[in-house]
Amino acid sequence: MSLEAKRTPELEELLIDAEADDEVVQHRRPVVNRPWLLLLGLILVALNLRPALSSMAPLLADVSSSLGLSAARAGLLTTLPVLCLGLFAPMAPILARRFGAERVVLGILLTLAAGILLRSAFGEVGLFAGSLVAGASIGIIGVLLPGIVKRDFARQAGAMTGVYTMALCLGAALAAGATVPLSHYFGDRWTFGLGFWIVPALVAALFWWPQVGQKQSAHQVAYQVKGLLRDPLAWQVTLYMGLQSSLAYIVFGWLPSILIGRGLSATEAGLALSGSIIVQLFSSLAAPWLATRGKDQRLAIVVVMLLTLGGLFGCLYAPLDGLWGWAILLGLGQGGTFSLALTLIVLRSRDSHVAANLSSMAQGIGYTLASAGPLAVGLIHDWTGGWAATGWVFAVLGLGAVVAGLGAGRAKYVGVSSEAV
User: Fold this and answer.
1) What percent of the chain is modeled with pLDDT above 70?
2) Could you tell me which CATH class the domain 4-420 is placed in?
3) Which top-rank group of organisms is this from (predicted)?
């Protein structure tokens, strides 16, 4: 059956609205002189949104041993950056209105580089302070990217979201797999393994610089969006973002420790995490494209979440002989869950200004909620002395994400619009 035959009256109404919204977006959207350069810049920026998070997990035992961190402080170290993602996300639209999104992205890339340097070179105080700065920087940049995609690539929003999500996953995979070998290369010094990731941040800033020089008319008029906090659909998008992110940051923060506890070496555990994230490259690109082919995204959300839970339970409970199969299953699921979460922000918004504010809400509140997951896993491990009981955390978060996703995946817009001020 063709897609045309599947159109419901509600979908027809949305398509008519979308055509009208496209005309509005065309008036608001600035002219991009070199879209290929913007695309390259977006990819390089996205590459830097996970290394500061995924590079810590394989080295967590070494860092804790070197600095004498307790299990509670090690748990806080995995939770702090995720909490900062949420707490600082609401600053993004405020800064963008004041300085322009492109300038903010450039400045925050430099702040991210400073945070990476701080946490790798200044002992325990620098470790926690740098993690805070890095998490805050990633939170601000991550909010701005969906709005930029909605503005400059409105007709290719799903595909473009998949592209930069794929780049984001690649950055996470590289950091998870390369940080321990880099530390060994530099004389078994974890500081060099963590500090290396300042390099791609500076490279991204260099390639993003041309975007700052473009005169963008969209920044000459300020827009406000009111009523998101009272919109049920906006809350469903937010809860889906937060719950699936909580599972993702449990994987980033604790999966290597879980696997080490089951008998793997630090290098083997880091490679398993890296391999799982590499698989996300494929599903993060494919999931938004496939999900936008149907009438809505609900089926896609259920499928990717079931894959995620299957992979998590396999890594936690199944024999290690089949670990790579479970890691691949986990990667296929999590690449899809995150890219769909970002796609929902774009698809549920009428224009780029609504997308930026919905992105701020979904990531601000969502990541604050997500930070409870890694903390809960650390506390349960301390209480029980093992990892088996953490499966309950996976189950509760996964079920909640499915329920929220069934609401967020409906083919509707949030019931707000942007207004010039």
Assistant:
1) 84
2) mainly alpha
3) Bacteria
